[in-house]
Design a protein that fits this description.
Blueprint lengths: L12 H9 L8 H21 L1 H4 L4 E5 L5 E3 H17 L2 E6 L6 E2 L7 E9 L10 E9 L10 H4 L8 E7 L3 E6 L4 E7 L4 E6 L10 E3 L10 H12 L3 E2 L5 H11 L2 E4 L12 H14 L3 E3 L19 E4 L1 H7 L2
Parallel strand pairs: 3-5, 11-12, 11-13
Antiparallel strand pairs: 1-2, 3-4, 5-6, 6-7, 7-8, 8-9, 9-10, 13-15, 14-15
The protein binds 1,6-di-O-phosphono-beta-D-fructofuranose and magnesium ion (2 copies).
One magnesium ion binds next to strand 5.
């Protein structure tokens, strides 16, 4: 594209969303508004994350979520903040969240979108001041507007996502998203209260030298995963594992690499959740020129059967994902 016509780096997220809205025929602006609602919730979580240590909201909440995992106070806060922002925005009719067992029907008769989210990813890292994130997928409602929300609405394949993204609360807070036309990243300037385009048209290198996997469960990995790890070591590749999926994914997206959460004895279907974590990152990765599978099948083609379904996850540079799979 002629560089003088390209959107300049530094454009605000608001302005960028508005400009892109015109790319869609018959766009009503609802999806644009929904993305703005998410960005607003992201700003609020940014604020909470940054003062977590001061406000004593960094620790355990004292309950378990539907996955049987100990909830952190910030998991609960982030869930509430996102739900509130999405409800108030008015474009959403239902929300499904990693933190809630059931579908949340937000009783908005005009809402045409469904959001699936992991409101706080990497929550075991909160207490130790390490990067965490939020992951979201946006789907169009398929059941008639005005009627009850159905399973069909919330169990759509990843290929049906109309947009997906994540917020990364790292050394800077970023929002990275796609509407199926490439991937763009925005960095938050807290002094101005705005996200600015900082990473236009992100492309993941086809090959990389970083592998990210929790080797603590090495003994129970399938043979092809063990072989792949050994091959990475043979080539003196770099091992990097933060333990926050968003942060590990983001690094590999920019530098080239692979993230694997394979099947293990403890988690025979892997640990990560198809609807809240894998679908969104799979779409972003593909849109950036990378690949995402469960070791065999394209993530975006998997028909979810249950809300909280888990899948093995191989995501990153295409050539690496091809080599690591079965
Ligand atoms: O500690 P493990 O088993 O390596 O798991 C790490 C993975 O679990 C997760 O923390 C799961 O996310 P939640 O914090 O949202 O439950 C991922 O972010 C991360 O990649
Ligand atoms: Mg998570
Ligand atoms: Mg979470």
């Amino acid at each position: 594209m002629n560089q003088s016509l390209a959107t300049p780096v530094g454009t605000t997220l608001d302005r960028f969303i508005k400009k892109k809205q015109n790319d869609f025929a018959f766009a009503t602006g609802e999806l644009s508004q929904l993305l703005r609602d998410i960005a607003l919730a992201g700003k609020i979580i940014h604020r909470e994350v940054n003062r977590a240590g001061l406000l004593n909201i960094g620790g355990a909440y004292g309950a378990e979520n539907v996955q049987g995992e100990e909830q952190q106070k910030l998991d609960v806060i982030a869930n509430i903040r996102f739900i509130r922002a999405l409800k108030n925005g008015g474009e959403v009719c239902a929300i499904v969240s990693e933190e809630d067992e059931e579908i949340l029907d937000v009783k908005n008769p005009d809402g045409r979108y469904i959001v699936a989210m992991d409101p706080l990813d990497g929550s075991s890292n909160i207490d130790v001041n390490v990067s965490i994130g939020t992951i979201f997928s946006i789907f169009r409602r398929v059941s008639p507007v005005g009627g009850p929300i159905t399973e069909e609405d919330v169990l759509q394949k990843g290929s049906e996502q109309v947009a997906a993204g994540y917020l990364l609360y790292g050394s800077s807070t970023m929002m990275v998203y796609t509407t199926g036309r490439g991937v763009n990243g925005f960095t938050y300037d807290p002094s101005l209260g705005e996200f600015f385009l900082s990473h236009p048209s992100i492309q993941i290198p086809k090959d990389g030298k970083i592998f990210s996997i929790n080797e603590g469960s090495y003994k129970s990995f399938e043979p092809h995963v063990k072989e792949y790890i050994e091959a990475c070591k043979e080539k003196n590749f770099t091992a990097r594992y933060i333990g926050s999926l968003v942060a590990d994914f983001h690094r590999n997206l920019l530098k080239g690499g692979i993230y694997i959460y394979p099947a293990t004895d403890k988690s025979p279907n892997g640990k990560l959740r198809l609807n809240y974590e894998c679908n969104a990152l799979a779409l972003i990765c593909e849109q950036a020129g990378g690949k995402a599978t469960d070791g065999k099948n394209r993530i975006l083609n998997i028909q979810p059967e249950t809300l909280h379904q888990r899948v093995p996850f191989y995501v990153g540079s295409t050539n690496m994902v091809d080599k690591a799979g079965q």
